[in-house]
C-alpha cells in the first residue's frame, strides 16, 4: 500500500470551531477507514497574539514543531503551509480568504461562505485565476450518512422527491444568553439565525433537491420567506423559507417542481427536550417513501426510511412495518469534521480546484438564495462587511 499523502494545514483563528476542527485533523484516519490521506498542523495564527496561537496549538495537541503566529499575514506567508482553514466569524470570511488566496494558499473556509453572493463570486474568480483550491466548509455534506442519502435520491429509491423540510432551531432566552455583543446576534459579525443555523437547513434542502439534479439541469430556486428581527440588534431571530426548485429529483416526466422548506429560529427548538423526542429534523418526501433524519441537522448519526404501504390491511393490523428501516451511522473517534478535511486534502493532492460534493457554483447559488431572503426581510449588514473592497480593516 502506498504511503498516505500528507496535507499540511494552517489554522486561521483560534476559537471554538477551530479547536474542534484541529482536533479532528489529528485523529488517526485509519479509525474511519481512510488510508490515502493524513493531516498535520504546521502553523496557527491568532489576530491578537502569538501567545494565544501557541496556547491553541498546545490545547489541541498539535505537533511541537507547529509555529504560532500573532498575525494572519505571517501565517499566509509560511511556505510550509499547503492549505488554510479559515475559522473566523462570517463577517470576516471574505477579507480573510482574500488574504489567503492572494498569498497563493489553498483555502477551506467556514460556512456561511461569505456575507453575500457577490463576495462569494469574487473569491471564486480569484481562486480560478490563481489556480487554487477553494471550498466552503459545509462539513455535513461529507458525512457518509449524507452521501448515502443523496445516492438513494439519485437512484430513485424514493421515487420523485417532491418536498424536503429541514429545521435547525435552538430554544434560547436570547436576551439573557446572547445579549447584544455575542456573535450570534451581533450585526457587525453578520450574526443572526440565517447565516449561523439556517445555512444547515438550506444545506439539506440543496443537498437533496439541487445537488441530485444533473449539473446541466440545475437551476436556482424561487424564494418566498419571512424574517423576524431581534429588537436589540436587528439580527434575524427567526427565518422561514419556502424554495421552489424548477425540477424535482428522479422525475421521469420532467414535469414537476420540488418544494424545500428551510426553517431556523432562536426561540423554539427542533429538539425540544434534548432527547430527540420531537424528531425528525429533516424529512425527505418522495412518491415511493420518505427519509427522516434525526436532529441535529449539522451532525446527524441516524435516519429512518419509511416506504409507501401496499394497502395490505392484514399486515397493517398485525403491525408489520417491513417497509421501515432505521439506519445508524456513528462518527468514529472524533466530531465528524475530518471528512471534509479528507475531501479538501484529496482535491489539493489531485490538483482539483473545487469539490464535487459542494462546488463553487452551488455555494454561490446558496448565497444568492440567502441574499434574496435578506432582501425580502429588509436585513442588511453594515457596509464594512457587505463590501467587495479589499483589504478592509475589521
Written overview of the protein:
The protein has 394 residues and is an alpha/beta fold. It contains 12 helices and 14 strands. The protein has helices at 16-25, 50-59, 72-76, 90-102, 117-130, 144-154, 174-178, 193-209, 313-317, 338-350, 360-377, 383-386, and strands at residues 5-12, 37-45, 67-69, 83-86, 106-110, 134-137, 161-169, 222-229, 236-245, 258-265, 282-286, 289-293, 302-307, 324-328.
Give me a quick take on this structure.
With 394 residues, this protein is an alpha/beta fold. The protein has 12 helices and 14 strands.
Show the helix and strand layout.
Elements: E1 5-12, H1 16-25, E2 37-45, H2 50-59, E3 67-69, H3 72-76, E4 83-86, H4 90-102, E5 106-110, H5 117-130, E6 134-137, H6 144-154, E7 161-169, H7 174-178, H8 193-209, E8 222-229, E9 236-245, E10 258-265, E11 282-286, E12 289-293, E13 302-307, H9 313-317, E14 324-328, H10 338-350, H11 360-377, H12 383-386
Parallel strand pairs: 1-2, 1-4, 2-3, 4-5, 5-6, 7-10
Antiparallel strand pairs: 7-11, 8-9, 9-10, 11-12, 12-13, 13-14
Q: Separation of termini?
A: 48 Å
- What is the strand content? 15-25%
How many H/I helical runs?
Answer: 12
Q: What series of H and E elements makes up the topology? A: EHEHEHEHEHEHEHHEEEEEEHEHHH
From the alpha carbons, calculate the radius of gyration and give it in angstroms: 21 Å
Largest beta-sheet characterization:
8 strands, mixed
Low-confidence stretches: none
Quaternary state of the chains = single chain
Kindly state the mean pLDDT as a whole number? 95
Strand order of the largest sheet: 8-9-10-7-11-12-13-14
Which structural class do you get from the secondary structure elements?
alpha/beta
Instruction: Give the helix proportion (percent range).
Output: 25-40%
Please state the overall shape, judged from the principal axes of the Cα atoms. globular
Quantity of strands, as a count: 14
